[in-house]
Amino acid sequence: MELAKRLAALAAYVPAGGIAADIGTDHAYLPIFLIEAGISEKVIATDLNPGPLESAKRAVEKRHLEDHVDLRLGDGLKTLLPGEAEVLVLAGMGGNTIKEILAAGPGVLKSVNRLVMQPMADAGDLRIWLAGNGWKIIGEKLVDEDGRLYQIVVAEPGRELFDDKLCLELGPRLIEGRDPLLNAYLGKIIEQYERALSGMASGKNNAAREKAGLLKNKLERIRKVVGRCL
Ligand SMILES: C[S@@+](CC[C@H](N)C(=O)[O-])C[C@H]1O[C@@H](n2cnc3c(N)ncnc32)[C@H](O)[C@@H]1O
What gap in Å lies between CA 102 and CA 79, rounded to an integer? Predict the structure, then answer.
């Protein structure tokens, strides 16, 4: 199976050998690729909803990979026993959903040595949670697929040395590593803040003015970080 850019970039962070679990697998493209490429011998593929799991089942059966992809229906890490998977992939869900899934499964997380994540939104909240819960962000990557920028965040047990919330929000390893798409990514963030600010410009009451002030302050800090980075 050939993967689109986003899933291929995720697969590149799954180490060869060991058992990986793809939480929220949907179509099971990633587990199928990991098996067919010889990266994994066995992948646990889970989904909360019967519909996506059914489509995963069809894709797995079509390729006769039933002995290699273990399909499970259920919520987050509740489908796993501690020690069953060393690598977890959580992709295509909101950053806060990923955070909640991780926070709800401390027993399973104890035996996990890598998290490969691709939050669709709220990546900052996820990074802040990771840094505060014994995970070090060891790699980050931006992927442009069909004109949309996706963030990949990879974490391993350890201490994240960056405790600056704004850097964590933006992506410390993206910044340090000067990701090739960093310029476009930071430009988009600044644009979002500017748009939100201009929408608030007409706010006349104190609360609106206060909110606009906070946003303006944050935008200035982002511009400073960006200035330091680029
Ligand atoms: C947009 S799809 C992403 C599929 C695939 N991971 C990818 O990146 O292409 C998100 C999937 O996550 C599943 N999902 C959402 N919350 C979940 C949870 N708490 N536990 C397991 N799966 C979940 C949804 O049912 C859906 O199939």
Answer: 12
Give me Rg for the CA atoms of the chain: 19
CA distances from 217 to 123, 124, 154, 208, 212 (A): 21, 18, 30, 14, 9
Q: Which residues line ligand 1 (CB under 6 A)?
A: 23-26, 46-49, 52, 75-76, 91-93, 97, 101
The confidence score (pLDDT) of residue 202 equals 65
CA atoms of 137 and 152, how far apart (whole Å): 11
* CA 141 / ligand 1 centre spacing (Å): 20
Nearest protein Cα to ligand 1, atom 22 = 24
Please name the residue whose Cα sits nearest to atom 13 of ligand 1: 24
Q: Which of 23, 26, 98, 115 gets mutated to test ligand 1 (max ligand atoms within 8 A of its CB)?
A: 26
Residue 80 has which token pair? 């796993």
Q: CA 171 to CA 190: how far, in whole Å?
A: 14
Tell me how far CA of residue 125 lies from CA of 17, 138, 194, in angstroms.
Answer: 31, 17, 21
CA 172 to chain CA centroid, nearest Å: 14
Instruction: Assign 32 to helix, strand or coil.
Output: helix
Contact indicator for 140, 158 with CB cutoff of 8 Å: no
pLDDT given at position 196: 86
Q: Identify the pLDDT of residue 203.
A: 63
Confidence of residue 198 (pLDDT cuts 50, 70, 90): confident
In Å, what is the CA distance from 228 to each residue of 4, 159, 160, 171, 221?
33, 24, 20, 14, 11
